[in-house]
Amino acid sequence: MKIKSKKNTKTDSKIKFFKNKLEESGYRFTKPRKFILSILRNNSKFYSADNIYLIIRKSDPDIGIATVYRTLELLTRLNLICKVSLGSNRSFYMLSKDCKKEKPNYMICNKCGRIITNNKCLNSAIRIRLIENAEKNIFKNCKIKIDNYQIFFSGLCDKCSLQ
């Protein structure tokens, strides 16, 4: 008899959650969907569609880039993953629960292309200067309600700014 470790049980429950969410929405839990969710589940970081495709291609060369893009769009619509658009048609994906831990802010380095997410110093500055009353002031002045937002900066990361 094989005993499951706690990690495998946790992984199995996540896979079941994704499978149930897809089936409740009328979709099948296909191999490309399982691959993509497994890749995103294993790391709390961003992946581009191209990165995901290259990882999947090593395991199954029959899955094409178009399938990856369609699957990412579906999973985004179902709120299983979130899509972060960083200008110039650059989009990155991660599990929704990881994006919702904090109000996201992102910085992309113009020199090395590194993406910095939720930097503690940047978070503090934004919270103090911008966020605390922004939603209330936007509603008061513009008569719109903000449900979610992203803050995006570009510039030089700590490593590139020292060069």
Q: Explain this structure to me?
A:
It is a single chain. The chain has 163 residues and is an alpha+beta fold. It has 2 domains: 101 residues, Orthogonal Bundle (Arc Repressor Mutant, subunit A), CATH 1.10.10.10; 62 residues, Ferric-uptake regulator, C-terminal dimerisarion domain (Dna Ligase, domain 1, 2-Layer Sandwich). The strands form 2 sheets. Strands 4-3-5 form a 3-stranded mixed sheet, with no helix packed on it. The longest helix has 23 residues.
What is the CATH level 1 assignment of the largest domain? Answer: Mainly Alpha
Measured by DSSP, the beta-strand proportion falls in 5-15%
The number of helical runs is: 7
CATH superfamily of the largest domain: Winged helix-like DNA-binding domain superfamily/Winged helix DNA-binding domain
- Low-pLDDT parts are 1-7
CATH topology of the largest domain: Arc Repressor Mutant, subunit A
Overall average pLDDT: 79
Distance N to C terminus? 58 Å
Number of strands: 5
Order of strands across the widest beta sheet?
A: 4-3-5
Total domain units? 2
Q: Which class do the helix and strand fractions yield? A: alpha+beta
Q: Could you write a compact summary of the structure shown?
A:
By secondary structure, this protein is of the alpha+beta class. It has helices spanning 6-24, 31-42, 49-59, 65-77, 96-99, 120-142, 158-161, and strands spanning 81-85, 91-95, 105-109, 115-117, 151-155.
